[in-house]
Amino acid sequence: MRHETELPRDIEVDVTTRGDLPGAADYARAKIGQLGRLAHRPVLRARVRVTEHRDPAVERPVVAQGNLDVDGRLVRAQAQGETAQETIDLLESRLRHRLERIAEHWESRRGEQPAAGPHEWRHESEPSHRPSYFPRPADERRVIRRKSFTMAPCTVDEAALEMNLLDYDFHLFTEIGTASAGVLYRGGPTGYRLALVARCPPISSVRSSST
After folding, report:
1. Which pick of 57, 96, 99, 104 has the fewest CB atoms within 10 Å?
2. pTM of model > 0.85
């Protein structure tokens, strides 16, 4: 029996707007929602925020931010424009480009490692799903906002890919070949600059002798 592969459907997009932006939410849902057809992996969550600045001195008063959770990997983009439609179109174009980049990255990594066996974990394996909270009684709970960052080991190319996917101007990471802390940032003729923290050599003991 022949089975046809189901094509990816449009994704549901959580859109929030701030300012006088009539029709912007519906347009963003339709425009960004179509990107699900390009994703080679499931889009677990999609969020878009469109904001209008009220300062008349701002040339491009509309800002749109988009975040896609593509099978656990965050893809982010931001755009500015004179109108909501123009800004959302630009945001869609940037997210589309990042989805194409991440698809190429996943495709190039296919076949690099065999599937992990039972009770075997590899760096590419899906992490175990454990609750990230303690089941405290409801009357003892409180909300605490906290941000943390882990300098994951990776190559310089992988750091550049991650920085572009997240639309950041710099990226902190641990260079996997030397285990040195590094920062990749935009600049120079190639568009990237790299700074690595040199590791201190081990201090050898010095034995003094009296003469």
Report:
1. 57
2. no
Q: Per residue in 4-42, is it b (16+ CB within 10 Å) or e — as a string?
A: eeeeeeebebebebeeebeebbebbbebbbebbeebeee
Please choose, from the candidates 89, 90, 85, 81, the residue with its C-alpha nearest in 3D space to the C-alpha of residue 62: 81
Residue 69: both structure tokens together: 């959770």
Domain that holds residue 78: 8-109
Domain boundary among 109, 141, 167: 109
Q: Show the beta-strand stretches assigned E in 94-198.
A: 153-154, 170-175, 180-185, 193-196
- From first to last of the 211 residues of the chain, give the pLDDT tens digit: 444 445 457 899 999 999 999 999 999 999 999 998 887 788 999 999 999 988 777 888 999 999 999 888 888 999 999 999 999 999 999 999 888 888 776 665 555 554 444 444 444 444 444 455 556 666 666 777 666 667 778 888 888 877 777 777 887 888 888 888 888 888 888 888 888 886 655 555 555 555 4
